[in-house]
Amino acid sequence: NAGVTQTPKFRVLKTGQSMTLLCAQDMNHEYMYWYRQDPGMGLRLIHYSVGEGTTAKGEVPDGYNVSRLKKQNFLLGLESAAPSQTSVYFCASSQYREIYNEQFFGPGTRLTVL
Amino acid sequence: GNSVTQMEGPVTLSEEAFLTINCTYTATGYPSLFWYVQYPGEGLQLLLKATKADDKGSNKGFEATYRKETTSFHLEKGSVQVSDSAVYFCALSGGYGGSQGNLIFGKGTKLSVKP
Asked: In this complex, do B107 and A41 lie within 8 Å of one another by their Cβ atoms?
């Protein structure tokens, strides 16, 4: 049981390049989330999904797109990377959406945009 | 909107010292409160939680009590170990106006425990 996995672990991009981060979970969770973590800022929600084929904006969605074509996968895309998107990206999943439910996090992807 | 404020770090303690990390929140209604921990090079994992006022969450020797009157959820441990060195995040979910199921995090407090 791998839990939540993220691919890749590290990536360096040049400004204007595009890339896709992959998140996969094997817990059959309905809900999935993408966060970014910046020094002194905590984690901020980028986008989330409440089920296969559905996505919604979080706190900081600009410059990102997401897709949830399969229940177990949640993709985060950067169409034209900017230095401000240098960050550590975490994916998470949860079984339910009740406010008391735990989210399970992946190990993170460290992205640097030059 | 809802928010979480936690004490600035880093916090450096000697092994077996007492730990307190302060966390206060702003939210109307009845949010759930969480402490997540991030060990070096890893993702976050749930440490403990409390879902209603006066609840005490506990795990691995850590405790936190949901105090609605002071809007606080301070993390405590009586005797820290080197293995407790990590970044600790206070978070909330829910409350009036809060998107159900979405977490709002504090900025994190880095704890270093010296032998």
From this structure: yes
Report in angstroms the alpha-carbon separations of A71 from A27, A79, B23, B72: 10, 23, 35, 36
State the Cα–Cα distance between residues A87 and A114, nearest whole angstrom: 12
C-alpha triplet A109, B43, B72: angle, nearest 5°: 130
Contacts of A43 in chain B (CB under 8 A): 44, 89, 103, 105
Are A4 and B43 an interchain contact pair (Cβ–Cβ within 8 Å)?
Answer: yes
Instruction: Name the CA dihedral angle for A22, A26, A28, A34, rounded to a multiple of 10 degrees.
Output: -30
A96–B101 CB contact, under 8 Å: yes
- Tens of pLDDT along chain A (114 residues)? 689 999 999 999 999 999 999 999 999 999 999 999 998 888 999 999 999 999 999 999 999 999 999 999 999 999 999 999 999 999 999 988 776 788 999 999 999 999
Compute the nearest-CA separation of B79 from chain A (Å).
26
Q: Which residue has the tokens 């989210």?
A: A103
- Tell me the three state secondary structure of residue B96: strand
Predicted confidence band at B101 (pLDDT cuts at 50, 70, 90)? confident
- Is the pLDDT at B9 greater than 90? The verdict is no
User: b/e per residue, B96-108, with b = 16+ CB within 10 A?
Assistant: eebbebbbbbbbb
Can you give the C-alpha Rg of chain B in angstroms?
14
To the nearest whole Å, the CA of B18 is away from the closest chain A CA by: 24
